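TICKET: design request
STATUS: open
ATTACHED STRUCTURE:
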């Protein structure tokens, strides 16, 4: 098993919209360092109805809705993202 090290010293953290209020007892924060988002070439360019953006950040791949980038972001290990892409057309 390979362990990846990611430098988070310059990370900008964002609290999840699903985190609890007040006491901060159930908080989750997410950060992607130097993530450069790009829109999928499969997104519908005319109406922007089905837009997906992806960013590669160290050992993770992040996916978000380009119409609402401040909303939830999904993150996957890069190896699982590669597996997903290989099996899209299967």
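STATUS: resolved
RESOLUTION: sequence designed for all positions
ATTACHED SEQUENCE:
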């Amino acid at each position: 098993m390979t362990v990846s090290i990611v430098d988070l010293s310059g990370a900008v953290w964002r609290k999840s919209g699903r985190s609890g209020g007040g006491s901060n007892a159930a908080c989750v924060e997410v950060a992607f360092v130097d993530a450069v988002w790009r829109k999928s070439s499969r997104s519908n360019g005319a109406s922007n109805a089905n837009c997906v953006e992806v960013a590669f950040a160290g050992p993770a791949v992040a996916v978000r809705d380009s119409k609402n980038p401040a909303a939830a972001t999904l993150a996957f290990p890069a190896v699982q993202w590669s597996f997903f892409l290989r099996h899209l057309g299967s």
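CLOSING REMARK: The CA atoms of residues 1 and 79 lie 12 Å apart. The chain has one domain: 14-86.
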